[in-house]
Amino acid sequence: MKILVSADMEGATGVTWPADVLPGTPQWERCRSLFTSDVNAAALGFYDGGADEVLINEAHWSMRNLLLERLDDRVQMLTGKHKSLSMVEGIQHGDVDAVAFVGYHTGAGTEGVLAHTYLANSITGVWLNGARASEGLLNAHVAAEYGVPVVLVTGDDLTCVDAEGYAPDAAKVAVKDYVSRYAAVCRTPARTAADIRAAAAQAVSLAGRYTPVEGGPFTVELEFDAEHLAAAATVVPGVAAGGERRVSYTSATMYEGIRTFKAVTTIVSSAVEEQYG
Questions:
Q1: Which of 206, 194, 183 is nearest to 38 (CA)?
Q2: Residues 14, 116: Cα–Cα separation, whole Å
Q3: CA distance 136 to 153
Q4: CA 6, CA 260: separation in Å to the nearest integer?
Q5: What is the pLDDT of residues 37-84, one digit of tens each?
Q6: Are 88 and 95 in contact (CB under 8 A)?
Q7: Strand ranges (DSSP E) for 49-113?
Q8: Whose C-alpha in 101, 122, 209, 243 is 20 to 30 A from the C-alpha of 233?
Q9: pLDDT by residue (tens digit) across 201-239?
Q10: How many other CB atoms sit within 10 Å of the CB of residue 265?
Q11: What is the spatial distance between Cα 92 and Cα 80, in angstroms, rounded to a whole number?
C-alpha cells in the first residue's frame, strides 16, 4: 500500500502570517521544523496503520521547505519545482492507493488562515463548475480522475470544514483555529503531531484505488485584483476574458484543467509589479 502526502505549509502547526512561510526569513526557518513535524506525524501514522510506502510531495512555494533529515527513514520525498501535476505530482503513475493533504488551507477570497489559491495574493476568487474552489477541491478532482481517495486533511478548522465538501469521508485534523487571515489559536506541536499520527493510522482503512471518475468537462473561472492580470492570463490558449478582472476556460479533464491553471498562475505572477500589483 502506497500513500502520497501532498504537503503544503500555510496550514501547518503554528503558521499564521506571511513571514512564517516565505523562504529565507527567520520565521520560515523556525516554521520549517513545525511543518516537518506535521508531515512526519502523518507518515508515521500511515505506517502504524499498515502502509508499505509513503511518498511526500513538497507542495509549498519553492517546494524545498521540509527538513529531509528529520523525516522517518522509511519515507521518500519528492522535492523541487516544475512538476507535471504540481501539488499532487506522483498520483498519475497508477501505484498510489490514497492521498493526504497535509498543511492545507482555504481558498482565495474566503475566511481562513493565509487563505489563497496558488498565488499568495492577486487572485481574489476561483470557481470550478460554479463552486468556489480551494486548492484542496482542485487537487481532489485530479485525484478522482486517477481513482485515488483523499483520506486525510490537516490545516486550520475552516480547512477541515472546506474538506467536508470534497472529501467527506477523510479524517480531518485542525492544528489551529481561525481568528483572522493572519491570526489563529494554535495547538502545540506535540499535541498536533499526536493528533495527526492517530488520524493517519485510522485513515489507512480508507485507502484503495477505485474506478477513475470522469467528471468533465471542467470550467474554471478566476478573478484577479487588477484588470491587467486578467489580460495577461488570456495569453494562455483557451483562456478567455469573462468580465472585468475575470477569465475562464474549459477543459475536458481535470488533468488538463490543473495544468492550464498552473500556466495561468505562472503568467499572472510574472505580470505583478511590486507594490502596485
A1: 194
A2: 18
A3: 9
A4: 20
A5: 999 999 999 999 999 999 999 999 999 999 999 999 999 999 999 999
A6: no
A7: 53-58, 76-78, 98-102
A8: 101
A9: 999 999 999 999 989 999 999 999 999 999 999 999 999
A10: 20
A11: 18
User: Which SS3 state, helix, strand or coil, does residue 246 take?
Assistant: strand
Kindly report, residue by residue over 175-196, the tens digit of the pLDDT: 999 999 999 999 999 999 999 9
Place of cell 502502509: 51
263 forms bridges with which residues in the sheet? Answer: none
pLDDT in tens, 73-112: 999 999 999 999 999 999 999 999 999 999 999 999 999 9
User: Minimal CA–CA distance to 55: which of 115, 96, 15, 17?
Assistant: 96
- pLDDT of 87: 98
- Residue 74: C-alpha distances to residues 43, 185, 247, 251 (Å): 9, 33, 44, 38
Q: What is the mean pLDDT of residues 156-174?
A: 98
* pTM of this prediction exceeds 0.85: yes
Cell of 201: 493510522
Q: Which three cell numbers stand for residue 180?
A: 483572522
Query: What DSSP string describes 173-211?
Result: EEEEEEEETTEEEEPPHHHHHHHHHHHHHHHGGG----P
Name the one residue in this structure whose C-alpha cell is 485510522. Answer: 202
Query: Alpha carbon 205 to chain centroid distance?
Result: 22
Characterise 95 by phi-psi region: left (phi > 0), alpha (psi -120 to 50), beta (else): alpha
Picking from 190, 207, 151, 181, the residue whose alpha carbon sits closest to that of residue 1 is: 207
